[in-house]
Amino acid sequence: MDLQLRGISKQYNGKPVLQDVSFDVAKGEFVALVGPSGAGKTTLLKVIAGLEDPDGGEIHCSFASSKERPIILVFQDFLLFPTMTVFENIAFGLRARKFPKTVIRERVEHMLHYFQLENRANAYPAQLSGGQQQRVAIARGMVVNPAVMLLDEPFANLDRSLRLETAGFIRRTQQEFGITTIAVTHDLDEALAVSDSMGVLMKGRLEQMGTPKEVYFFPKNQQVARFLGPMNTIPADMFHLLDMDVAPGTRELLVRPEALDLAADPDGPGTIREVRFSGHYQACVVAVGGRELVIYQKPNGLRTGHRVRIRVNADLGTRE
Ligand SMILES: Nc1ncnc2c1ncn2[C@@H]1O[C@H](COP(=O)(O)OP(=O)(O)OP(=O)(O)O)[C@@H](O)[C@H]1O
């Protein structure tokens, strides 16, 4: 275990910002922390980085932060030094730690090679594409061989394709170098796609921590469920209208739109009210038992007015 947080709490001016936050981070793990604005995500990152002292609780590290193996906090925007070349930007952290010149050259060249920036070593940030700037910023963090990398909003201010590319790039790099990474982000798609564990922070409390699939498909409560995206609430009196097995005593089922399947059936209990095209899937609004369910399907020829049967994929359902 690389990091253990136990009962972390923090107040600003008497207002609790973090309340009893506990979780473990394994070596080499990528943890994404998500949550609404003001939930305390950045404060938690600063506490882990040692930039803020918690009012209560403890953090246990399996290593001591040192010149050789620091914790690195990469702040929002990946700001590069505009008057320094790519080489100088990447070398900055090593120079600040007074590493010998030969070590600096060797390590920076390794990064330039790994990040495919060799022919841009003497360029200035303004001469680079957005994607290249991101890579320089990540290289600048990686070059100091951090034990833990803390990222604050690493995908902010990037357009969609660059967000996904950067997320994948950070993921591959932290895996290859074995760097434990904690990222705070608003970008749920990227958090779900690249993290090993995802923590949902709400009003200073860690509501749930688990694999992205667990948290997404089996949220602990309605707030977590709704924060992560649309969710159908299916009450017990509708169970007989759907194809599914439900444990006895279940009062209500929370089901994501992608955990429901539709099949055309002239005698089916549902009627398609609306089909919305959304790129790689279509969202069908289906009237059934006096309610409406939202169901994501691959485009499959079903149209408004069609009668349907509805199947619940139990592996992706969640109960309350
Ligand atoms: N230095 C500070 N002094 C007083 N209050 C602060 C300070 N830093 C943060 N806060 C407050 O603590 C709460 C949590 O802030 P924090 O920045 O940790 O949230 P966040 O989840 O990162 O939000 P966002 O997603 O908007 O960045 C907010 O209400 C904020 O106003």
From TrEMBL:
Domain of life: Bacteria
Keyword set, alphabetical order: ATP-binding, Nucleotide-binding, Transport
A GO-annotated cellular component: ATP-binding cassette (ABC) transporter complex
GO biological process assignments: quaternary ammonium group transport
Gene Ontology MF annotations: ATP binding; ATP hydrolysis activity; transmembrane transporter activity
Residue span(s) of domain ABC transporter: 3-228
Short name of one Pfam family: ABC_tran
Annotated protein name in UniProt: ABC transporter
Species the sequence originates in: Desulfoplanes formicivorans
